[in-house]
Amino acid sequence: MPExxxxxxxCGFRSPSEWPPYSGPPNFAPxxxxxxxDEGGEPLEQGEIVCxxxxxxxxVVHEAWDAREAREHGSLGLYYPNQENTILExxxxxxxxxxxxxxxxxxxxxxxx
Length: 113
Description:
The chain has five helices and no strands. It is an all-alpha fold.
């Protein structure tokens, strides 16, 4: 992948000091209205934007997705018998990320039809 592309998309394998100002989709830019809300309906704060390709390589993302899957199938207690709040929160965040993705995909398909 070209270096300019990696830097423009805030590649996590590069130092953040090398990243130019973010110019990706506006609803993912720092400080923009969040698409993800907490259970009370308040937008979650967004941190620095990092390329999803790098983010997907993080073990914590895989663990959060596993917790989400276990929660969806009613088996979270089997995998995490001493459920900590962090496990439950990770499962919720993973579910919200999936919800945002699915909503965006539905909008994209509506525009195409």
